[in-house]
Amino acid sequence: MMLWENILLALDALRVNAMRTLLTLLGVVVGVAAVISVIAIARGGQAMVIREVEGLGSGMVWIEPNLAEQSDFTRLELLDQRDLEAVSLLPGVAEASPMISTSMPARVTDESRDITVTGVSAGYARVRNLDLAAGRYFTEREVAAGQRLAVVNEQVVERLFPGAEAGDVIGEVLWLDRHPFVVVGVLESTSGLVASVGGFEEAQVPFTTLSRLTGADEFLAIFVTPEEGADLDRLMEDLRAAVERHHGPGKFSVNSLDQVLGAIRSVTDIMTLVVAGIAAIALLVGGIGIMNIMLVSVTERTREIGIRKAIGARRADLLSQFLVEAVVVSSLGGIIGILVGAGLVALVSAVANLPSLLTPGSILLAFGFAVLVGVVFGVYPANKAARQDPIEALRYE
Amino acid sequence: MSEAPLIRLRGVSRVYRTGSVEVAALQGVDLDVEAGEFVAIVGPSGSGKSTLLHILGCLDRPTAGQYLLKGRPVDGLSDDELAVVRNRELGFVFQSFNLLPRMSALRNVEQPLIYARVPAAERRRRAAEALERVGLGHRLHHRPNELSGGERQRVAVARALVNNPSVLLADEPTGNLDTRTGRDILALFRQLNEAGVTVILITHDLEVAAEARRIVEIRDGRIVGERRGDAP
Ligand SMILES: Nc1ncnc2c1ncn2[C@@H]1O[C@H](COP(=O)(O)OP(=O)(O)OP(=O)(O)O)[C@@H](O)[C@H]1O
Ligand SMILES: [Mg+2]
After folding, report:
1. A283 and A236 in one domain?
2. Domains contained in chain B, CATH given
3. In what order do the strands lie in the sheet with B90-93?
4. Rounded alpha-carbon distances, angstroms, from residue B230 to A61, B78, B189, B199, B215
5. Which residues pair with B200 in a beta bridge?
6. Which residues, other chains included, contact A22 with Cβ-Cβ below 8 Å and sequence gap of 6+?
7. Quick one: pLDDT at residue A196?
8. Residue at a domain's end among A250, A274, A291
9. Strand pairing partners for B215?
């Protein structure tokens, strides 16, 4: 009953000074809107990047040249058959797939263009989470035999087989340099940022075939699928040791997708925290604004305080009246801030094509913060009101 | 009279200290007021009338002496306990009305009941009743600035009455009103007194004081005389 009375009183008092109230609200509005939109947009961005990275092959581990150590690209030391065999034999390795990468002129009819040709093993599709839109991937036996088979991506179909659907190109011949390859499969195009940025044409062929044709018998990377339940840290340590036995320390790095995900998470978390911290400072400034106006209000209404004391208001009554007023101001600011923030998030996610993650949790957090600001910065002015001497207050002009 | 009077002051003093200067606004005041009385306190400006009324009204505390309200000492009460006493036992009417400007007459009169934790519906009923009683039944929803001076003072009286106090305390309630309106307000006090309300009223207008049954004269902080008024 008392609370409701106090809310009515507060709304009344705030209406009288509508403009002043509005300006006081603004600080809280900005703070809350900033907190909400920063958290939502950062979460959205993070979720998108993580989904993207997970699409590259969950649980994947790979070995590649450590470019920090091997800075001379012309004399880059690569992995070789010995490494592949050593890695394949390690406990905890379900599958190891080497990768050779080169660029070759490709043609179907007359027109020829350079495409990326990747030499891989049969397990590569599994390791990298690749799906096929048509046809099949080559088998281990075909890899061992060094057959001239190719799995192409959608860009190859688009550029070299104009007008053809994925299914139409199975069994067609693709010329890589002077060598005919039979197309056995077409990769599903991956949607997402990485795919749309790196939209190059690629043909995947057995690494055995590619190394025979080009003379290249070294690998750019080895991809490893760990066995179910394998200790990832231990496995990565074993992989490093296996590679270092042949090449010496430091030349290659062992990476896992989990590590990358962790790094992305911690970077975006820190960024979110920093920006949310700045937003929280805006909220604090808003709180100081509330305190300032509440102090003015208490002084202006000294006589009202005297009257209320004379008719029987106790300290707690006046304390709660003015505290509720401060909280009503900050909550109003919070509500408006939530609306503004939600609008901002909707706008940004529409423009930047981000998934918007405006969670009830972050809304509640921001609103709770706004209320808290009202309480914290309202206590001092309210206490000042409650402690007035009745006679002095009544005499105040 | 075996029973304690409604109000009993014994040796009450009030000394104001401003820096090193001391002003004794009241010096050893003894005063008894029985329930149902109509007392006027008169005296020249600065004689301590308002100071006395503030002490009677528990808005201020004496620096020395004892105050018994309904036989119970008030001195030992905390600020919050005094607030409760003001709310339940005392009703104030001021010279300058002291209404809350942004509220209707009805809401103004409701305020003491809010602090008495009376439920909203009953509050409204009792406030309307009190306004009815002072002849303002037709002005419930007017704000103070939409009312005449006399009407404002009636709202103030209704607010003082609404929680059925033991005493109505009025500090120059006609001071801001013209003679005729002042007389109407005075008639209202008389009428309330006849209905059983104890009234203590300050004035320096002897014509006003004459309405009371008992006139207490104060000078330099001391009670210097007491007369019976002309009132029947
Ligand atoms: N807060 C205060 N501080 C210091 N002195 C005060 C204070 N209040 C009143 N006084 C002094 O106490 C004395 C009595 O004041 P009081 O207000 O009781 O007089 P009053 O009889 O009501 O006068 P009036 O008829 O003008 O209202 C005066 O001399 C006044 O100056
Ligand atoms: Mg006075």
Report:
1. no
2. 36-61+78-228 (3.40.50.300)
3. B90-93, B167-171, B198-202, B38-42, B214-219, B222-228
4. 109, 40, 15, 16, 10
5. B39, B169
6. none
7. 47
8. A250
9. B40, B227
Nearest to A310 among B88, B92, B120 (CB): B92
Between the CA of B82 and the centroid of ligand 1 the distance, in Å, is 22
Tens digits of residue pLDDT in A259-302: 878 887 888 788 878 877 887 788 888 899 999 999 999 999 99
Number of domains making up chain A? 2
Tokens of B216: 């207490």
Chain A residues whose beta carbon lies within 8 Å of the beta carbon of residue B111: 308, 311
Mean pLDDT confidence for A123-143: 86
**Alpha carbons B140 and B127: distance in angstroms, whole number:** 9
| B84 contacts on A by Cβ (under 8 Å) | 312, 314
Q: Which domain holds residue A234?
A: 78-250
pLDDT at residue number A350: 84
pLDDT at B7: 96
The CB density around residue A58, as the number of other CB atoms within 10 Å, is 12
| CA–CA separation, A219 and A82 (whole Å) | 11
Quote the minimal CA–CA distance from A345 to chain B in Å: 40
Per-residue pLDDT of B129-174, as tens digits, reads 999 999 999 999 999 999 999 999 999 999 999 999 999 999 999 9
A window 7-46, beta carbon within 8 A of B? 12-13, 16
Q: Is A322 exposed, middle or buried (0-12, 13-18, 19+ CB in 10 A)?
A: buried
In angstroms, rounded to a whole number, what is the distance separating the alpha carbons of residues A367 and A332?
Answer: 10
Residues B112, A312: contact at Cβ < 8 Å?
yes
ipTM: 0.94
In this structure, are A99 and A243 located in the same domain? yes
pLDDT digits over A327-354, tens only? Answer: 999 999 999 999 999 998 888 888 877 7
**Of the ligands numbered here, which is closest to the C-alpha atom of B25?**
1
CB neighbour list of residue B157: distance below 8 Å, 6 or more residues apart: B93, B134, B168, B173, B185, B188, B189, B192
A78 Cα distance to chain centroid = 32
Token couple for A394:
């009544």
Could you give the CA distance from residue A330 to residue A282 in angstroms, rounded to a whole number? Answer: 13
CA B212 to chain centre: 14
Clarify whether residues A289 and A388 are in a common domain. Answer: yes
User: In sequence order, what DSSP letters do the residues of A15-49 get, joined into one string?
Assistant: HHTHHHHHHHHHHHHHHHHHHHHHHHHHHHHHHHH
**Between A367 and A71, residue with greater pLDDT:** A367
